[in-house]
Write the structure tokens for this entry.
Amino acid sequence: MRGKIFFCVCVLLCGALAVCAWMTHRMRALSDTFYLEMVPADPRALLMGDYMRLAYAFENKAERKDAKLCVVQETRERKEGERQEITQVGVLKLNAEGAACITVRYEHGRYRVPHQFFFQEGTGNKYANARYAAVRKIGKNTLSVVGLTDKNFNWMK
């Protein structure tokens, strides 16, 4: 009897974990992409493999307390050969006026935003010109990094 109860509890826990993972994945897939301006930082660590340590421009300007980031629409021109394309992108800026805002908490000496971006070993050189981190909002005030872009918002793949 104890074995059946243990099995049922394990199945319920695994099911609950799977539902939470699916909900987070779904929320990340359906949310809009915004961009955070980055500043140079140490690009890799020996023990963790190849990854980029991310530092954001708003961290240098903000006081050491919770920061309010709002979406500001910026217009960019992209030239691909003879074709010219004008796009609008949402950039998160510190203390700006905007419709969509999030509060980034300041805890334990740093802001609660993703500070690492992992990539395949040996491909670090192509991320050297990264200027913006493409982030998506998952949850109320939680961000997730989905990629890096250059100054013209072209995704680095």
Observations:
- Helices lie at 2-30, 57-61.
